[in-house]
User: Fold these one by one.
Assistant:
Number 1:
Amino acid sequence: MRPRLILAVFLGLLLIAPLVASEFHVTLLNYIGLYAIVALGLVLLTGVGGLTSFGQAAFVGLGAYTTAYLSATENLPGWAASLGGSPWVGLLAGLLVTAVVAFVLGFLTLRLSGHYLPLGTIAWGISLYFLFGNLEFLGGHTGMSGIPALSVFGVELRESRKFYYVIWAVVLGAVWLTQNLLDSREGRAIRALKGGVIMAEAMGVDTARSKVVIFLVAALFACVSGWLYAHLQRFVNPTPFGLHIGIEYLFMAVVGGSAHVWGALVGAGVITVLKQWLQDWLPRLLGASGNFEMIVFGLMMIVVLQRARDGLWPILARLVPQREVRRDVPQGEVLPRKPVPESGLVLLEARNVVKQFGGLVANNNMSLTVKAGEVMALIGPNGAGKSTMFNCISGVNPPTKGEVRFRGEVVTNLNSRQIAKLGMSRTFQHVRLLPTMSVLENVAIGGHLRGSKGVLPAMLHLEREEEQRLLAEAARQVERVGLKDSMFELAGSLALGQQRTLEIARALCADPCLLLLDEPAAGLRYLEKQSLAELLRKLRGEGMGILLVEHDMDFVMGLADRVVVMEFGEKIAEGLPDEVQRDPAVLEAYLGGVD
Amino acid sequence: MDLQIALLLSQDGITNGAIYALLSLALVLVFAVTRVIFIPQGEFVAFGALTLASFQAGKTPGTLWLLVGAGVVVALLDITMALRSGASRRIPRIVGWNLVYPAAAAAVVFLLKPSEFPLLAQIVLALALVVPLGPMMYRLAYQPLAEASVLVLLIVSVAVHLALVGLGLLFFGAEGSRTPSFSDASFDLGLVTVNGQTLWVVGASLLLIVVLALFFERTIYGKALRATAMNRTGARLMGISTVMAGKLSFLLAALIGAFSGILIAPITTIYYDTGFLIGLKGFVGAIVGGLASYPIAAAGAILVGLLEAFSSFWASAFKEVIVFTLIIPVLVWRSLTTRHVEEDE
Amino acid sequence: MKLRKLVVAIAATCSAFVVHADITVGVTLSATGPAASLGIPEKNTIALLPTMIGGQKVNYIVLDDASDTTTAVKNVRKMISESKVDVIVGSTITPNSLAMIDVVAEAETPMISMAASARIVDPANPKTKWVFKTPQNDQQMAIAIAAHMADRGVKTVAFIGFNDAYGEGWHQEFIKYADTYKFKVVANERYSRADTSVTGQVLKIIAAKPDAVLIAGSGTPAALPQVTLKERGFAGKYYQTHGIANNDFLRVGGKNVEGTYLPAGPILVAAQLPDSNPIKKSALAYIAKYEAAHGKGSISTFGGHAWDAGLLLQNAVPTALKKAQPGTKEFRAALRDALEGTKDLVGVHGVFNMSPSDHLGYDQRARVMVTIDKGAWKLDK
């Protein structure tokens, strides 16, 4: 069966489920839907973005409590009573409250890195739980009842069979939004958060913003789930929003397959159904004494994770034939380009750059310039500090002392994102790409700054034209560097040399006026080197400045207009290729002296 | 609040903080060596204390059955593996640790009467039952996943925690237990009276910390663990087995957990599910220490203890709200002052 | 994809096991989670209930809700729709019971709660019409304590309770009687069940210098504040709630809980009741039965609430059977009516006299004041 067909069958089954399934199975599906919405947020946040949160249950609570408070009008003070009474007001208010709270919490906790973040989420998860329980106007620990049922178009949704359609419409809507988001310019930035932050920043992605975005989206999903929960249950108390439940949501996401949108549904489904199943069957198997459900559930989950550490979805997905890889090269109008600086203009000027790591001086008093329309090569033995210099220039790791000017502007204290915006783009010595994304998508990250459409248009797929143009641009760069045949392959499956070439395409996709290439020819075969040199000459001809670190002397000397030689972090020679090759200091450095 | 109350609260905070500190050390150790965030740490606290309480009540603790059961499973798995890889000379050792040892423990529990043992012997026996569960747990739950991501290991920890809490309820029931004090002495220090058990808790914690420090500094196993913590691959290349390091760190964590439980059982009531919150607070300390630094982790744990004591005085209903809200700025501060490489995994 | 198949497969297997005919009693209780110490004896008691009532076979379906509201509601929906239960018994705790009301009212299935709060059955409205309960209301117990305090000249009281629905409910009820019984509540502290220390709260209580302290917790966790208060030398009167009434509390509290006063159902001191009290016989019979199954000293008053629920059913089912067949809507309605019409039914906690406005139906006989004397419960006269 084809994936599309399976999807259609799945949707069909969802549609008729409440007509054929028993009341309780509909109830179960309702809960699965509610959980899946939250787990979906976690897929985005944790699985894709790499930010682990234990606190999602608290956001569910915010959604549930806001609507409970506003729609059970008897709780309201007089002035607000006229506004309340409607679940829809509750939803809007809930989203607003959640957005504000999530923004504040995100502002505080997203700065936390590594393991500080999960603990931060535990901290506010517990705080909010006890806050719900101790605020009298929210019904305290005992809870609030009298929440009205939801009405859609005048139909009161008291029965779970009717409510089912609302829940699953929301689930599918959330799936659609999430998939759209991930399949967009913003989505590529989000997917770069896990393991590609330095690269993404160097391509101009504001990763801090991306983090806030997924945090907000996940919180709002949770809030909507809470809103539905409150009107389904028509009673709220703090226990469903505690830390234990927060952990359970994470559990669902991971067991389902936290890197996959459908994993959220699988996780929510499997865990809910498994618990029911254990509740039904264990007493029969083991007799009625004792409560073995939790024990068996825990043990089963250990086994599941040992067998499927990426979750269940990848295993299920393997059962169906691979989704057909898109073969047509994206076409689109050419993106506007920045004006090219006049040839010969000094683009980059580094003056007396010093970089210290603790006591170690990696760069000492380094100066160099790159002009538009020239290839400048930075060479030197291993460990001479060339890549450090690159990082100083591109803002990845700013210098300790000294000054870097780019296009006349002092950029010493700018971060790599701001520098990228000015028109500098780079590759990395140790390849930094996202192995599970296609070559095309990796290259498209380079074009991040050439698009402008934000998260909302992306989620609603209102940015398709811009996206098409971006992908077309990426495709052109892929073609230009000679990777056309692998355009739709996973970047991780390329050979190392090709991955380096991919990085060049990605850098070119940014439409830079200065290109920093860190050992672009390493791992390439002779013919590939030839065509790379050809490409660089062409770029030079178009007026681009190129700063090149390379070990292959033939390659460098045949290409470079000027050469700077480094040793032990200092410049030992500078000049035309021929001059440098004859310089005794250089010969000393490379050959250990010519006695 | 007067000085006396402040002193009493500090004393209380430090006592609890000492336990959190012990647990945070264990958590740091386990994480550094295996990358496992060891949520079930708290269960060892409960198991240690409740096993001791069972002896004192003249009952057979369920942990004995867990030890025997886990031992059998580990033995089956390891023997199969040993046979497959042709390393049959390892079998006697496997049988010894996983079958003979639990059987011997069972024999002691059934043939002799632990309820009549002196306290010290009961404690040793309780530790002897609970501590080996640590390495067995590593073998069963974590060893097959040694290379998985931190997130997956974390979720496995949650699963182990769920299973153990379920077992705890089954073994020990829903009601709690207290054990008698190690000492009934109390010391009058002018404004405050310090009771003997408090001194025991703080003293034993300090002693254990010193012993651990010596272990890491002086012994070959300690050095091996430190090497693994610093660089897993490097350590493996140097012939330090990851499995050995993992089991050893779990053994130590189980020892620290069970011992902590036995230390505090006389001053509080321990329930089958007590461990989670205690462990969580130890975890807070561990994270404040960046899951790397032992002294900062201990300091963080003491801080949690003090925060808790004072906020339970000021606004007890909002104690958790206060403690956990105040932790966020500490985390932000720690996060900003610790250098770390953004590029993970 | 797979998921749907799984659901369908499970649906098929489950429905194959649904028993029709007979009377089906659906029980959801908190056998795990924070309220497990209450839920476990209830669960044990359900197993002792008769399997034949009025010549009809009775099936009990017992589900654990892990002290969680969502699970409790899920359980109720499951039992109503899958097992077509005729009556729901449970849950153990107040929030769960409150959350279940909507569901049973919609399904028109009577429910007998085993949780404390009066909010579960009051006020009488179309929803609570279907809901009954067996444990004494907090209110009734709170008045007992307040009156007992007033008799002994207590003017100031400190309150410390669980930081959950139990502690909250008690505080709300208790402070209502401050004026009537002329005492002042001088401290209101909370602690969590799993807290390892309550020193902060205790110091604050001692600083407020109350004549008495009321501790609102259930099971062994209620001992910690009292032990800490004793250690810190608090010499006033100690009051506990009926939540502590099991022998584990005595074991953990030891000497520190001597002289504590608490209100409780008469079952706690059944043997000490005068023979003229009808509850004595009923309670002793239940205790004998429970201890025969679970060992001497294992009795807990919470199990008694489940037993009383059983007694209510044994009383009401024969009446309802005359009107309709089990498994039908009519039977459920008849059962509800019969429950509401319960008169002079002697339970183990009290005597039930229900009416449309009173779905508990206890009177003064449902509570006695008890004190702890030499490590045993003693009727306080």
Note: Chain B touches chain C through 38 residues (CB under 8 Å).
Number 2:
Amino acid sequence: MGALVLSQGGTFEPPGVDSFFLPPIFGEVTKPIVLVVLSAVIVGAYFLIATRNLKLVPGKAQFAAEYIYDFSRNTIARDQIGAQHFRPFIGLIFGLFTFILVNNLFGIIPLIQYPTMAKIGFPVALFLMVYVVIHTVGFRRHGFLGYFKHVMFPPGVPKPVYILLAPIEFLQKFLFQPVALAIRVFAAMFAGHLILLVFTLGGQYLLLEGSALLKPVSIVSFAFAILLTFAEALIQVLQAYIFAVLTANFIGAALAQDH
Amino acid sequence: MENKMVLAAEGHNPILPAPAEIIVGFVAFAALLFVLYRYAVPRFEKVYQERSERIEGGIARAEEAQAEAQRTLEQYKAQLAEARAEAARIRDDARAEGQQILDEMRSQAQEESDRIVSQGQAQLAAQRSQVIAELREDLGRQAVDLASKVVGESLEDEARRRGTVDRFLDELDAASAPSTSTNS
């Protein structure tokens, strides 16, 4: 779409914020909205089908599905929350990891090429759910005042320090940490997609509009775009992992007996 | 910028979330969580459970079997020891009994042989005395007959005759007594 503009113009229009705001497909429905629904359907359908007939000795397909589940369950949820309390949160962590993973990977899947988490609305939606879960769990475990005490007055600190520490801890737990959770994945996806756009559109511009001498340089630009796509793939998996791990970590912290 | 894009004119802020996206994102994720919690997680957990039960159950069963084998082994050992002791006891008893029987039989045989020997001796003595008596009578008669023939007359006087024969026989007895004692 940007390419169309460029070929008409002749001067290079660098990709920016507007590259993420595509015109709606119909009505209010935009591409990221379609993609986010698609991702939920993909993940849900995959695990519905994969778990339909589980065997004690897994086949290849079952092994793959189980590997993802096992990773979310044991490596993320159990290690962060603790073997005693992690069971109710397996589904949440598992869902977060797979859902964000698929949405992020949309960024490099040909033809789709749009990381939905680059639209802040979706990380915010996840953030809201996680926020509610973390603090509900905390209030349930420690009681209303007990949870505030648990958050704001970590033990082992000289008393006067609490004047400074208590508000900081409060803001940290109730605002910064969860908000950062949402912004982290958004920013990573946003920036990553932008970089890919810069190299792809830049290469295209050089190829189409550049002088004969500049045209070969577009190869370098495309090469970088491809290279960065691999880096992007790594970051996308990593961000999904980080979101899930931090969520599990916050739940674990809210559940912890002592700070 | 000669870009005529309508969207750009609105001045998008990437930090401001669109309400529609939040709602759709939330609903989509909630629906996914529902599916995962309702189907995927329980199914996976069931397999995990079965697997760990299979392993733990196997171990428990193996331990049980081992304990059972140990118990049976001890039982067999005890039974074997008992049987051995029993056999030894029976053997000793039999030996003692055999010895006893042997002794009894030996003494019985001894008695029997003694009895037979003494009986034989008594019979022999009786026959001997009978033979002697018969011989004495016969010898006496023949000696008288012979003497009658030699003298040519009958020795009618029975009292004298009996006295003579008896005296003769007594003399004969006295003469042959040493020889008969050595013979017997």
Note: DSSP finds three helices and no strands in chain B.
